[in-house]
Amino acid sequence: MARTDVFRGLHEPLFSVHEQLNEDPISPTIPDQPCVDSSCVAVGQFLQLELETPVLDELFPHLWFVAAQTSQRVDALHKQKVKGRRVVITEDPKLHLVWHSGIIYIKPIPHCLLNYEFWMRYICLPVDSHPEETSPHMRSALGFLRTYALLIRHPSDLRLALESRLMPGHIEWNRFARFIEAFRHLDDDQVSPRYHFGQLRLTRLNWAIRMFRPSSSPQWWYYHEIYWSTVAYIERFFGPLLFVFGSLAIILTAMQVVVSVPEGSILTTKQWTAVAKASWEFSITMILLIVVIWFAFLGGFIVFLIAQVAFSVKMRVCGDRMGLQDLSPKACKEMGTWRGVKEAEAGGFRH
Question: Which of 140, 192, 206, 250 is most enclosed, with most CB atoms within 10 A?
């Protein structure tokens, strides 16, 4: 059986070499990553991109405002189906177990985390390490795999995971159950702060970003933007606006009917005058409100155009300085410009 050592001083994986689900050699490249060599620097950078969630870790002291602080709040894959949620694969660890509007983002398991030798070489601590020493990516790796212990609790969950390409296709239930068993019993103090929480609602995370402004976030308004088209962004307001204007139209029509009643037939002259005055004031207010809304809409559209032009000019200047022809976030990333990547992602690159 897999070991259940406490976090500090973990010198070997929680699964044995016989329970590993990936037996690929580590050299010259790591499993399923032909472009990542087996050097410690390259693997460290790979694990940073694959596992770390700096924004959520920074938000950790405030996440209880927007989510229930329980790591066990992760629905199994079959229950995600029952709730009508569609699994969307993401390779960004910050989106793992984030959900909204009938979809949930889930990151597939990197094949290297299923490999015993990989854990021994890059994640576990050396035998002669200090008792208080911790591996840079161990907490994140343990927390990430613990979420799969909750996502996959039955053979049907494993079938759904394989259908969604969340795991290698050759894995059988008995092997997976033995591999994942020890991860089910990890405590919160053994995993990274993000994994002290389970599923997170995207709309609430967006509000957390706006309220607490974490320095590690590339954006100050969204945790993750889901509207990549301006038209789609505006369309989401149509329903509420139609309801509001429909309600106001009914109220105005009712007032018009009341005012059309002859003076003195139902209301006294004083009452009729008060109703007429109120109807007149309300009508003028509605006219002014509509004018303000139109000015706000047109002003927002102009500001949006200016922001898009400014962003394009900024990226062009950056590209000219670096000699880039391709100014996409991918090109900036390949050139090693981390700041360029963050600015490009924050800009949106709407299509």
Answer: 140
